[in-house]
Automatic annotation (TrEMBL):
Domain Major facilitator superfamily (MFS) profile: 20-505
Gene Ontology, cellular component aspect: plasma membrane
PANTHER family: MAJOR FACILITATOR SUPERFAMILY MULTIDRUG TRANSPORTER MFSC (PTHR42718:SF9)
Domain of life: Bacteria
Protein name: MFS transporter
The entry's keywords: Cell membrane, Membrane, Transmembrane, Transmembrane helix, Transport
Entry-linked Pfam families: MFS_1
Keyword Endoplasmic reticulum tagged: no
UniProt-annotated location(s): Cell membrane
InterPro entries xrefs: EmrB-like (IPR004638), MFS (IPR011701), MFS_dom (IPR020846), MFS_trans_sf (IPR036259)
Similarity-based family: Belongs to the major facilitator superfamily. EmrB family.
Amino acid sequence: MSQAVLNQPEGEDVSKRIFITFSVMLATIMQALDTTIANVALPHMQGAMGATQDQISWVLTSYIVASAIAMPLTGFVAARIGRKRLFIYSVIGFTIASALCGAAQSLDQIIMFRLLQGIFGASLVPLSQSILLDTYPKEQHGSAMALWGIGVMVGPILGPSLGGWLTEYYNWRWVFYINIPFGALAWFGIAAYVKETSIEADRKFDLFGFTLIAVAIGSLQLFLDRGESQNWYSSMEIIIETGLAALAMYMFAIHMFTAKKPFLDPAMFADRNFVVGITVGFMMGVVLLATMALLPPFMQSLMGYPVLDVGFLLTPRGFGTMAGMMIVGRLARRVDLRYLMVVGTLLMIFSLWEMTLFTAEVSSWDIIRTGVVQGLGLGLVFVPLSTMAFSTLAPKYRTEGTALYSLIRNIGSSIGISVVTTYLAHRVQINHAAFSEYITPFSHPLHMAAEKGMYDISTQVGLLSIDAEVNRQAAILGYLQDYRLMMFVCVVMLPLIFLLKRTKS
């Protein structure tokens, strides 16, 4: 741990902590926003670039894959050139790449600049977490992680509404230009107040180990991101990506435990809290973005909400998350953090159970209320988890550990989105077949509906109307079954919390 920050007079120490917190929070929010803010602008980019649906999806895929591959490098590069220097380079690179994305004139350009964005942005979240853990004394880690968690959790939640507003009233390019003032302020604060760490000039780079993990992560991300569009295992591309991911990960695991100087030190995994922390973090990632991926299309396609209204109705979820994190910040030193996580998980289970009862006529208030409850639960889980996962981990593993923690959570989010999307398509087909069995010439409810003038079963138009309604009801039930799946993920997560060892401040 960097002792220079902790050994200063208290007044000066507190003021520097405020500036450091503000600076790294800006960098965290900037990167977290970019995980979702560009999604709503894709149709506008597609029109401006003259691209197909499959081509424009690479704007998201390139960023996700580049970020996933570069993130494991954070620990090694920080050790070789210094954590502060890496943070500054990352902020400057990310800001410049954002400006270039906004100015891009072709699809090839924006994909290339998004790759750069992903590479430079990969280090921002783990470095910000590591710096805050070192800046604050151990008894204040809960409060520090509450502040850090606001950026990590609220950024992706507010991204779609902010992106929709910027796209609607300005231009899709502003979803990238908005990063420029954030980046400039973050660079100034980091350069002025963050202390540099010691440099390990003799640390060797495990090229073979990094190549294996890069191939595994890159193949996995491509598999998850493109699987649905390529119809999964009917595509040779998906089969190859699955094989590469499995083989490379298997070889990396063997290499990590047998090499003298592996890319990731296996000693990290001897810490129980860290291992349980990244496991629960993976499941949190699944629930966090998968639920966010389901609600907008449910509200737009089945309830008829315009995109801006969808963003505004989802925003209170972020306020619930912020409230949960503030509660944790207040109670972190008074209450066993595991109890807060249990309460948060129960709130998430309750809100997801309520969502399984949604209909196409569900009120705006019910959407807001369940979102706030779910956000509150996420806040009560995320901050204690981020604190306890590193509470017993040796400080020398902190930068590497935070990078791995963020990576596993991001992979969980990617898997969650792919699973719910595929499961939805599968369940809609099954539900449609099940409902169609009741649409027969002998169906009494169908004849009653026809007598009331709702459908004309004697014409082709009437039959098409009935089929459209069957499709709609099958889709509604499919979404509800997806919410139930997310609820079961939270139920499985609940007992894992008690595997965490309680630590005293």
